Amino acid sequence: MKKKVLTTLLCVSLAATLLAGCGGKSDTPASADTAPATEDAAPATEDAAPATDASVATGGDYKFEIIVKSYQSSYWQAAVTGVNQKAEELGVTVNCTGPNAESDIADQVNMLNNAINNQPNGIGLAACDQEACLDSLQTAMDKGIPVVCFDSGIPSAPEGSVYATIATDNYAAGATAAENLYPALKDKIASATAPVRIGEVNQEATSESITSRGLGFIDKIIELAKADGKAVAVIGNEYYVNNCSEKGDEASADIIIEVAVPAQTTVELCATEASVILNKADTIGMFGSNQVAAEGILTANENLDVLGTDPATSILAAGFDAGSVIKGAITSGKMFGAVTQSPLAMGQTTVEVLTKIANGESVSDVPTQGYWYDSTNMKDASIAPNLYD
Amino acid sequence: MGEVILTMKEIDKFFPGVHALDHVSFEVRKGEVHALMGENGAGKSTLMKVLTGIYKKDSGTIIYEGKEVEFHNTREAQSAGVVIVHQELNMLGHLTVAQNIFIGREFKKGIAIDDKKMNEEAKKLFDRLHIDIDPTETMSNLTVGKQQMCEIAKAISHDAKVIVFDEPSAALTETEIEELFKIIRDLRKQQMGIVYISHRMDEIKVITDRVTVMRDGTYVGTLITEECTKDDIINMMVGRVIYEDPKQKSMVAKDAPVVLKVEHLNAGRMVQDVSFELHKGEILGFSGLMGAGRTETARAIFGADPKESGDIYINGEKVTINSPEDAVKCGIGYLSEDRKRYGIVVQKTVAENSTMATLEKYVKGLFIDKKAEREVSQEYVDSLDTKTPSINQLVVNLSGGNQQKVVIAKWLVRNCDILIFDEPTRGIDVGAKNEIYKLMNKLAEDGKSIIMISSEMTEILRMSDRIVVMCEGKKTGEIGIEEASQEAIMNMATREIS
Amino acid sequence: MSKNSVPNTQNKSVISRLGGQKFIVLLVVVGLIIFFSAVSPDFRKYSTAMSILDYSYYIALMAIGVTFPLITGGVDLSIGTGLICYSLTGGFLIVQKGWPVWAGMLMALLLSIVIGLLNGVLVSIMNLPPFLATLCTCMITRGLGSIFSNRLGISWPTSGTPGSWFRNIFKITVNGTKIPLGFLWVLLLVAVMAFVLNHTKIGRYTIAIGSNKEATILSGINVKFYHIMAYVISGLFAGLAAIAYSAVFSTVQPGTGAGFELEAIGGAIIGGVSASGGVGSVGGSLIGVFVICLLKTGLPYIGLQANWQQIITGLVLIGAVLVDIMKKKKEKI
Lengths: 389, 498, 333
Hints:
The complex is a heterotrimer.
Chain A: H1 2-23, E1 63-67, H2 74-90, E2 93-97, H3 105-117, E3 122-125, H4 134-142, E4 147-150, E5 162-168, H5 170-191, E6 196-201, H6 208-227, E7 232-236, H7 238-243, E8 255-260, H8 267-278, E9 283-288, H9 291-304, E10 316-320, H10 324-331, E11 337-340, H11 343-358, E12 366-368, E13 371-373
Parallel strand pairs in A: 1-2, 1-3, 3-4, 4-5, 5-12, 6-8, 6-9, 7-8, 9-10, 10-11
Antiparallel strand pairs in A: 11-13
Helix pairs in contact in A: 2-11, 5-6, 8-9
Chain B: E1 4-15, E2 18-29, E3 32-37, H1 44-51, E4 59-64, E5 67-68, H2 74-80, E6 82-85, H3 97-101, E7 108-109, E8 112-113, H4 115-129, H5 144-157, E9 162-166, H6 174-189, E10 193-197, H7 201-207, E11 210-215, E12 218-224, H8 230-238, E13 258-266, E14 274-279, E15 283-287, H9 294-302, E16 309-314, E17 317-319, H10 324-329, E18 332-335, H11 339-343, H12 350-354, E19 363-364, E20 367-368, H13 370-384, H14 400-413, E21 418-422, H15 430-445, E22 449-453, H16 457-463, E23 466-471, E24 474-480, H17 486-493
Parallel strand pairs in B: 3-10, 3-11, 6-9, 9-10, 15-22, 15-23, 18-21, 21-22
Antiparallel strand pairs in B: 1-2, 1-4, 4-5, 7-8, 11-12, 13-14, 13-16, 16-17, 19-20, 23-24
Chain C: H1 14-17, H2 21-39, H3 46-71, H4 79-95, H5 101-125, H6 130-148, E1 154-155, E2 172-174, E3 177-179, H7 181-199, H8 201-211, H9 213-218, H10 223-248, E4 251-252, H11 260-270, H12 282-301, H13 306-332
Antiparallel strand pairs in C: 1-4, 2-3
Helix pairs in contact in C: 2-12, 3-7, 3-8, 3-10, 3-11, 3-12, 4-5, 4-6, 4-10, 5-6, 5-10, 7-8, 8-10, 11-12, 11-13, 12-13
């Protein structure tokens, strides 16, 4: 009888796990949504290309182990390229590994343990799971091997095991989109006789990375508009309305920021939400805070045809992340521009920070920036490598 | 009776641990109705399954139309002209009559199924059988009797030469049985060989030409029906004498108190203004044709179906019964006609089934008190003489009669004083039937009160102290056993209601 | 007694002669359109109608297919993640390996048939409960999709680039007006599959299995084969849905797709497929899907906060299942 109960329990829990596995939301791998905002939420002040930092002494024969989340995506390939570039530049040896998929958490822990056993001078880790690596990190610390996290931090890591975290400052990246979109809309706002509307589509209102980007965009628009003497109101999804710097009053506002969040993180629901805003006559700008949201706006436009690059005749849309669809839309003038993260710089900075640690220098967290790109600078050498498919 | 069309010789079949058929021989002639009788487990079904290829025989020969054959599945048997009409389970309720009849060998027009032609062919079949059924009707809309006709039509449509009827009358009303017999006589005239499996002795006498009796997997003998009596057959089946005489007078004391009183009960079309009383120690028979509303009345009293109006008094006190739970609290137990669906959980043990309605009594803290459960179920296994190797036996492995006893035990454990038996002996063989009867009589003697719903006239007349007759949802009569006769009851059961 | 068996075409109500639940659901669809149009002027636009149609194709196609396993009394939970898997595979071959678009499509369809076959074998031959079997293939396709695409989001050729002709299968622009060609294909496939369900052996035996599997076996029918076929059809239509999805949307993200199947199954059940098998129609499933699609699109248009949408869709589903149960009760009486 006991056996039966056990079996039943087992079956139920198995089914539950399967369900959870099947029904769970998944992150877009390329957008690295799991990256938590760095503690320092201020706009990045550091040089966008820290490679030029002259304070790093050349590295001697240091050996570093770099573990990425998944070895084969182009986002991570860009990161690995950055790692190798910097390694060559500094004359250090790096060994890059990573599991097949971001969900292969156990594989990655094994790789981390192997890396520790190789006794390197340091380890660069983009952890697939915030919890799974904790034991290994303790071991690394016990053996005196410094670890640097990149792309995603590990907030609960054993004190002192992680020397620095290098991740995108999502709040600043969101602000970057506003900084580039607002000037293009400025004239239209100035000449408007009635309030104008800027829409923002966020895939959801729960993950740190997406909400940071969304709020970064809203707060920067508010800041810039205030400087021009315009009043701003934020309406729509409650989370964003309540957490932005100032929600304002819709009745008296010159600019209304309308924030939409779909019920599920699917493209067509993002598109439907975008359609609702794009359909309004007073809408002049749109922002989609990750690849799915940005593509949702583009999908909505398939039937509406209201997007373009001329503020006088069309709505200007800003996106986030790269991918062939967004790149294509920017090239063809459907999308005004987008912010991309910088896996390349992240990879470079990781090696650089590891070298500094090996040299005995003290290091701190490095927030990496998002880069604005549009049809004019897509081919630039500093941008192009970050535009993964 | 014509020449022999089918001969089964020295058929042997083993199942793990059981010698299911022990050198059984059997033959069917053209134009005869040959009854195959025996208690449940005697091997009738197994023999027929060997014939139609569902089981593979271990040894022996089957000669059909002069040639030795061995069918590997029902389909092969069908195309050779040997078909079984199963009790009722072969219906595809969501398909139409014609679609059912021609399932597996549809007429086609290109890749499409030619439903029009199938409907026409079905119509022709029905005409041949002189039955009036619309081939385009959805099967689940038909009465059980009509469904049975469709099964027969399906069998005949295979150009059958040998048709096996497996308890065809189990779910039929008297009129429907009459119609069935008409068809069978028709088929006999057309020189088909018919095997008729049934438990109903009176039917055997009416419709069959010869009777072959089996017992415990062996062949006992073959008789010419005309030349034997019921008792002869029963003796061959069980090896002991069973009397099926009607009860002569009521066993209930004149001053026995009323334990259950139902007044003006209404519940849908099938229960209209039903009132009756049940005395302590009484067996109250509920007679009527299939669909008269007897089961519906019982279910309404038991709280299984909603009531529209009416009052129920237990021992003179008015009670509210809105669910079976309420009914059980009032001491009413209901033994459904469909044991497997409502009465027992076949994949559970005898012990578990026995305490199912009383589980709260056998719970200690969070756990079931297995010891107490074993004790009480053993007690009832003994007192009811349930034939089971152990109380840990799964109920599915028991015979129908013993399953019924487990259900009875379940309600006795619950201390129910009023027991509603709905078709208590359906699907139970003659020997076990007798035991159930004895048990019911004993329960009544012990002061339990019983409502017995039965479609078998002999059962009603044999068991009841008093009889309530229903027809089309209304109570049409009530008669004491002293005055009761088949004719009187049938008269009330078929009364036209204006 | 014989009175009961009078052919009861006469006492069928007007509604049941018009198609029963199908008719009621169609009224619901019309009611929703009227309601949303009345509340939101933007909903009345042609572009909105186009969007609703665009976003309905893949759900509609999945619903057509899943109607078959549902009628057998089973279910296919793998169609959602399957869709993404097939789309990723096809897209990967086209974009990364340079295959022609038609070949990529063909591979997607082939893979969908293979997964359908796997489901069928698990359910029919290995006797796994359909819920569990397809839950497992749901996991498998989710993983496979990621592997085939190297965990990359894949975009089939976008409009204006070479190879984007397949997008015109579902939508063409004539004189500046967009024509929802995909809807035509959906209607055509509904007609074809309605024919398959009602007038071919595959359909007849699908109903038979859902009605009484034991009896179907006893009728000498190769039940295993036809049971498998129901899942193959479901798989194939998930493959067709994958093509529709790839054509309407841009990037297909690995790891997504879970939840699509619920909308398709929900639509089928709203459209009158019985949760216990044996009953259902392809046309009904299509109409049911539109209830879901209209809610999905319409509720944001009337300014309802996102999560309410799912609550309302859930309530509508409960309503549909209750209607199903009540119908059964009525049949019993």
